[in-house]
């Protein structure tokens, strides 16, 4: 028995055409990323104080205390600041 291949569909081109359709659809529906900064974050950024010489000196003192192991944490001050922030 002999089979003629004259009516056979080329499967490779069929799959290629399907892939091309998907690419064009995804290109049309491509979305861009967006970033939104909340009002609270904007307020926090606005409240930052510029670096002054006194502040830089205090930061250096704190670094030295931490490095030498003499830095003491006052838990009462931390709790007060957190309480004011959380209100």
Helix content: 55-70%
Round the Cα radius of gyration to an integer and report it.
33 Å
Main sheet: strands, sense, barrel: none
Supply the helix-strand structural class: mainly alpha
Distance between the termini: 89 Å
How many β-strands, per DSSP?
0
Oligomer, anyone?
single chain
Stretches where pLDDT is under 50 for at least 5 consecutive residues are none
Estimate the global geometry from the Cα principal axes: elongated
Overall average residue pLDDT: 80
Helices and strands, in N-to-C order?
HHHH
Helical segment tally?
Answer: 4
Proportion of strand residues:
under 5%
Description of the molecule:
The chain has 87 residues and is mostly helical. It has a domain at 53-87. The protein has 4 helices and no strands. The chain has helices at 11-28, 39-47, 53-68, 75-86. The N and C termini lie far apart (89 Å). The model has no long low-confidence stretch (mean pLDDT 80).
List its traits.
87 residues, mainly alpha, 4 helices, single chain
Write the layout of secondary structure elements.
Blueprint: H1 11-28, H2 39-47, H3 53-68, H4 75-86
């Amino acid at each position: 028995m002999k089979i003629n291949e004259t009516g056979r569909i080329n499967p490779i081109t069929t799959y290629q055409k399907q892939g091309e359709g998907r690419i064009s659809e995804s290109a049309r529906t491509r979305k861009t990323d967006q970033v939104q900064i909340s009002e609270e974050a904007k307020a926090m950024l606005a409240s930052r104080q510029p670096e002054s010489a006194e502040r830089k000196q205090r930061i250096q003192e704190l670094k030295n205390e931490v490095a030498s192991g003499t830095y003491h944490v006052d838990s009462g001050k931390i709790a007060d600041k957190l309480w004011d922030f959380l209100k």
